[in-house]
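Q: Joint fold for the lines below.
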Amino acid sequence: MIKELFIDRKEHLKSLTHGLKNGKDYILIAPRRFGKTTLAQKILEDIAQDADCLTIHIDIMRYSGSVQSVAEGIVENCLNALGFMGRLKFLLKQIEFSFKLKVKYGDLEMEPLLQLIREKNDEWLLLEQALELVEKIAVKHNKKIIVFFDEFGELFYLGERVIKVFRSVIQLQKHVNYLFAGSQETLMTKVFVEKSGAFYRFGNLIFLKNLERDEILLYLTEMNLPYEIIEIILHKFNCHPYYTSKIIKDLIIEPQHAKSIDTFLDYINNVLISQENGYLELQLQKIKEKTHALDVMVNLSMGLDPYSSLNISRQAAYLALKNLENGGFITKIEKAKYVISDPLLALYLNR
Ligand SMILES: Nc1ncnc2c1ncn2[C@@H]1O[C@H](COP(=O)(O)OP(=O)(O)OP(=O)(O)O)[C@@H](O)[C@H]1O
Ligand SMILES: [Mg+2]
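A: Joint structure:
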């Protein structure tokens, strides 16, 4: 069955759940839509079953504008985990909030931290204290805390100091373990894999992989799909876990899409792409923020070399490629040769 295609995710689910509960930290690295968030949420759910553990999920993307907002995000999610649900700025406006907090967590000394948030004049101190809060909660509640930082790569855009503060606070903690996820492979590698990175040797690196080609081939063959359609799926979607499994599921429900090459291409262009339109447009919006990046993407989608086929300087092409690579939109396959990471985005651009 289709579930079996995700066999390695199941193994990861088991080993990461066990590891996190037993003092290990992990870093999940994979391109967009490979299932990082889904896997991490499942892990947190499993861990939360354990009465001795508390889980905190912080999506950096939601708070990535400034150091202040990241720190506030950490505090907000800590408060949520403690049962104070709601956005921090609304919580702070409630008169009885501080009082309740004091009654419940008097010796947690939340007031200085909330003061820092209100005054907005020392974001670095605030960040340190926000990160320290997690350990304090763990000690106070006598629980192990597992924190999942999703979209960790977004922090890199705030500068190196943020990452260094994270590391310096986190590494001293004894009651908290961390799971990081990020899709910007080059940036994640810089911080977690390279010797000079702030998080070098911090935790166990998990690279979520593409699905196995042979496995998919076997599966598609068993579905009795025409050979040409199998070719298109393997060639155009490159064993991408999300798209491949989505296509398989769609074809099981509506086999008529696979009647001929034409009906299948029609399905891709009119069903799949329109279902994913919102996501694809969001990607394009981000790409457009960088100079020449969209032109370079369109160029790559046509199989051209942006260095020679665009009317821009070599330096400009290089910069656009670097930005795209850092953003996780393209992957380097050999020297000066790149491919678009999201196969559907590639098709969308090349329509
Ligand atoms: N193990 C799985 N089985 C079936 N579907 C999955 C699985 N993992 C992920 N998906 C589906 O794939 C899609 C992308 O997954 P998810 O959002 O977890 O990826 P991601 O790696 O966090 O992506 P991003 O980098 O964009 O945040 C989701 O719609 C999810 O429902
Ligand atoms: Mg995600």
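Q: Anything notable?
A: The CA atoms of residues 82 and 161 lie 29 Å apart. The domain at 2-207 is CATH 3.40.50.300 (Rossmann fold).
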